[in-house]
Amino acid sequence: MAEPARVLAFGAAPAAPRPAETASVLPMPARGRAVMPRLVRWASLVGAQLGPPVVTVFLLLVVWQLAASSPTSALPSPLRIVDESWDIIADPFRTGKGIDQGLFWHVLASLTRVAYGYSLAAIAGIAVGVLLGQSTLAMRGLDPIFQVLRTVPPLAWLPLSLAAFRDGQPSAIFVIFITSVWPILINTSVGIRNIPQDYRNIARVLRLSPIEFFARIMVPATVPHMFTGLRIGIGLSWLAIVAAEMLIGGVGIGFFIWDAWNSSRISDIIVALTYVGVVGFVLDRLVALLGHALTRGTA
Q1: Range 54-67 burial, b when 16+ CB lie within 10 A, else e
Q2: Which of 100, 120, 251, 252 is the Cys-Cys partner for 110 at CB 3.0 to 4.6 Å?
C-alpha cells in the first residue's frame, strides 16, 4: 500500500515557491523596458547633432594652437588668449562705468539698440511690404527708390544720422533700422504677390471683406516669406550695430572691440568676437524657431 501513496505524492501539484524565490525571477517592468530605448535614441540624436560641430571646433582649435605657437606669430594662440583675457572670460557680469565693465553689459547695451531698431524695421517693413504687394501703382512708384536706397552701405548712413539726431544713441538705432528694413519689406511684398489666384477667386466667391481676406488668406500665405525677411533682417541688425558702435562710442560690444584695438589687446578682441558670433547665432535661431512655430514648419 505504500507504493500507491508514493505515486500520488509524485503526481501532486508542486508546492508554491517561497516569496524570496518569486522576487528573484520577476521580469523588468514594461515601463522600465520602454524607457531604455528612448534614452538610447535621445542620446544618439544629441550625439548626431552635437558631435560633428564639437569635433570640428576641437580640430580648429588644435590647428590654431599649432599655427600660433611660434614666437613670431601675429595672432595669439587659444591658450594664450585664455591666459591674457581670463579676467573678462571668468567675470562677464562685472559692473562698472563706461568701457570698464563685463562683456555681458556691453552685449546687453548692443541688444537694447538692436531691439529698438529691429522692432521699428519689422513694423515699417511689413506695413510697406503689404502696400507694395497689394498696390501695383505703389510698387511702380516706390520700388525703384527702395532698390537704390537698399544698396547704400550701413555705415554710409551714420554721418547723416549723426547730423540729423546729434546723438549717438538714436543714430545707431536709425542705422539698424535702415539696414534691416529692406529684406523684411521685399520678402513681405513678394509673399503677397505670390498668393495663388485661386485664393483670390475664392475670396470673391465667398464675398470676404478686406479684413477677412487679410486675416484668412493674406496672413497665412505671406507669413513664411515674412519670416524669411525677418530672419535676414535680424542678422543684418546685429552686423550693423557692431559696426556703428565702433564709431559712436559709449557702451556696447562694438565700442569694446574698437577700444581693445586702440589698446593693442588682441586677445580681448578675439573673446569679444566670440561673443558677437554666439549672440548672432542665438538671435537667428530664435527668429527661426518663432517662424517655425507660427507657420507650422512652412517657414
Answers
A1: eeeeeeeeeebeee
A2: 252
Assess if residue 26 is contained within a domain: no
pLDDT digits (tens, 9 = 90+) for 186-198: 999 998 888 888 8
Q: Give me 283's grid cell.
A: 538671435
Q: Give the C-alpha separation, 149 to 179, whole Å.
A: 10
- Whose grid coordinates read 548712413? 157
Residue 9 lies in a domain: no
Write the pLDDT tens digit of every residue in 34-87.
666 777 777 777 777 777 888 898 899 999 899 888 888 888 999 999 999 999
Who's near 239: CB < 8 A, 6+ residues apart?
A: 154, 179, 280
Residue 251 sits in a domain whose CATH number is 1.10.3720.10
Q: Measured between alpha carbons, how far is 104 from 271 in angstroms, rounded to an integer?
A: 12
CA distance 107 to 93: 11
Nearest to 152 by CA among 173, 114, 187, 182: 182
AA identity, residue 227: F
How far from chain centre, in Å, is Cα 202?
A: 37
Answer whether residue 148 is part of any domain: yes
Which residues are 100's β-sheet partners?
97
